[in-house]
Write a structure and sequence with these properties.
The chain is an alpha+beta fold. The protein is built from 13 helices and 14 strands.
Length: 410
């Protein structure tokens, strides 16, 4: 007997015909996969959006700890931990020499308060804060508006209390600077009225400061800083790092920010990681459901599969017909799930997200291309889940003899 030779499109047509013969059952399968895919799609988009929003929100929480000289002044607000202007200084390489475990990032700052800067009103007190743009995580996240270009030498960032337009030129100790960006309201005095510039620009200003004031402020001396702002590494606790700092470094003061917010920052990151396993479990349960369903379908269609084998269909062709049928059904279900997920996201946008935004809590959706990518992954994942679920019952059925299949035995 010659082999059964059929083009792939014929196998696809047969699979479509099989789905159409049992419309109710096929519709239930598509609906079940659509619901699972909608949950997965909505969950992934919401998780990614929450992660993006948290990154933006937590970046504004500033430092977990601050290290300053023992007699330095500090200021703690609900939003931010900041170094106050003081003549007390620390060595710029202090933390690097100490090798303290548990420090994720450390941002050094130089804070200089003066009434002779030529900026603002006559004799107005101005806080000039020097920072390292490469290590900073407490200033740049607060930028509300900026020029449409990268920051350049000679640019400064102004606190929210400074009413000066972007792009304006200001004078500091007789030197011109360009207003590159402005910060949002933080509630911290130094942060609100400060003029922020890079270390390089601040140190280049030292000769003009010395000429006008008659001295070099101690925090502007080479190798000195006013203090360090520290973000804890994942898993590190405030108590551990504080004890290590005080044990290894003499004549310092360690000031803590909001320990509750630090715990939330670390805890929510772990929570999002756990949510990934829930998505994997959803795919696994869908594959199991498809496997059980196609076991029943194949049992019902043993006679049809037996006839195919009797006229010469190969085992791979038998498996192919079943797999194509499963892929079509679950792929359509995945597409429907994405559409349903889009509707769910619109509901969230007009309820929960609207409520959070109204309260002043920003919620940032992932961009459109990422959302399209998530949709494609969900549709392909649903189709792959169908193929995996149907593979075992299809392979088992293909191993039986045509006679046994037709008689419904085995």
């Amino acid at each position: 007997m010659g082999g059964f030779s059929a083009p792939r499109w014929l196998l696809g047509g047969l699979a479509l015909q099989n789905l159409g013969r049992r419309k109710a059952r096929a519709s239930l399968l598509v609906a079940a996969v659509a619901i699972s895919s909608a949950i997965v799609f909505t969950g992934i988009v919401m998780m990614r959006s929450i992660e993006t929003s948290m990154a933006a929100g937590f970046s504004r929480l500033g430092a977990d700890l601050m290290v300053v000289a023992q007699n330095a002044l500090t200021n703690i607000t609900v939003a931010l931990l900041t170094v106050e202007p003081t003549s007390e200084t620390l060595d710029a390489d202090l933390l690097e020499r100490a090798h303290i475990n548990g420090i994720g990032r450390a941002a050094p700052q130089r804070v200089f308060r003066t009434e002779q800067s030529d900026f603002g009103g006559q004799g107005e007190s101005v806080d000039i804060i020097g920072y390292d743009p490469q290590h900073d995580f407490t200033i740049q996240p607060w930028i509300n508006e900026r020029l449409g270009r990268p920051m350049q030498p000679g640019d400064v960032i102004l606190g929210a209390a400074r009413d000066v337009p972007l792009g304006s030129e200001i004078m500091l100790f007789g030197k011109p600077f360009r207003v590159y960006a402005k910060l949002g309201r933080s509630g911290a005095g130094t942060h609100e009225r400060g003029v922020f510039m890079s270390f390089a620009d601040l140190l280049a200003l030292v000769p003009a400061i010395r000429e006008q004031t008659g001295q070099t402020p101690p925090m502007l001396a080479p190798g000195k800083v006013s203090g360090f702002l520290i973000e804890l590494a994942p898993g590190a606790t405030e108590l551990q790092v504080r004890f290590a700092l005080l044990s290894h470094l003499p004549a310092i003061k360690v000031v803590a920010g909001g320990s509750l917010l630090t715990g939330i920052r670390q805890g929510v990151t772990a929570l999002l990681g756990g949510a990934v396993s829930l998505v994997a479990m959803m795919f696994a349960s869908t594959a199991l459901m498809v496997s059980v369903l196609f076991s029943a379908i194949i049992t019902e269609r043993r006679g049809e599969l037996g006839l195919l084998k009797a006229i010469g269909a190969k085992r791979t062709q038998i498996v192919g017909v079943v797999l194509i049928e499963a892929i079509l059904a679950t792929g359509i279900g995945g597409l429907g799930g994405v559409v349903l997920g889009m509707l769910l996201l619109r509901v969230f946008e007009h309820s929960l997200v609207y409520y959070l935004t109204d309260m002043g809590v920003p919620f940032l959706w992932i961009d459109r291309m990422d959302m399209v990518l998530v949709a494609a992954v969900c549709i392909l994942g649903a189709a792959l889940t169908g193929a995996i679920g149907a593979l075992t019952p299809a392979w088992r059925a293909s191993r039986h003899d045509p006679y046994d299949l037709i008689r419904g035995e085995g």
